[in-house]
Amino acid sequence: MVYDGWTRTLHIISFKEREQAMSATPKTASELAEEYRQVAQDTVDSTRAYAQNAVNAAGERVRDLRRDAEPTMEQIAARVQQAVQRGLESASKTSARAQRRFEEAADVTGRYIADQPVRSVLLAAAAGAALTALIVLATRRSDED
User: Fold this and answer.
1) What are the φ and ψ backbone dihedral angles of 2, each rounded to 5 degrees?
2) pTM value?
3) N or C: which end of the chain has fewer CB within 10 A?
4) CA-CA distances (angstroms) from residue 63 to 57, 60, 68?
5) Is the pLDDT of residue 129 over 90?
6) End-to-end alpha-carbon separation of the chain, Å?
């Protein structure tokens, strides 16, 4: 057996072929050149085949990775969509709850005003006066600066 490390191919030469090669008559320069040309061509062909196999293997690996990644991407997209849906549902529930509380507060305020109209007017006037005082204080401080 002869191992050609350059092209990584294994050439098996039988004992008879070795014997024939050694006992053969001397070859002419053109016969030797032709023999070496053929060996060189075989080397180029085997190198091309090796390179093509490597490219094919790499391409197959890329296809496998894509095939493996597609379900993962679909799962991620589905999870994101579910999270968005849950967020929208939560926002909708929160909005409905806030609206109910606002309506309840408006009802309670309306009943209080109906039950105690004089006290309600006095509270509103006191709240307005307090708010006016805060605004006046704030504008005086900004004028002093």
Assistant:
1) -125, 130
2) 0.39
3) C
4) 10, 5, 9
5) yes
6) 100
Q: List Cα–Cα distances, 125 to 1, 133, 136, 142, in angstroms.
A: 111, 12, 16, 26
In the numeric block, the tokens 């053929």 are attached to 38
Task: Calculate the CA dihedral of residues 59, 61, 64, 65 and round it to 10 degrees.
Answer: -110
- Answer whether 37's CB lies under 8 Å from 29's CB: no
Kindly state the tokens that stand for 43: 């080397």
User: What per-residue string of b and e applies to 93-105 under the rule 16 or more CB within 10 Å gives b?
Assistant: eeeeeeeeeeeee
Spatial contact of 1 and 10, defined as CB atoms under 8 Å apart: yes
Span 118-128, pLDDT tens digits: 998 898 899 99
Query: At 73, which amino acid appears?
Result: M
Q: How far is CA 8 from CA 25, 31, 47, 128, 131, in A?
A: 30, 26, 8, 95, 92
Report, in this order, helix, strand and coil percent for the chain, each rounded to 5: 85, 5, 10
H helix count then E strand count, the chain: 3, 2
Q: How far apart are CA 23 and CA 76, in angstroms?
A: 72
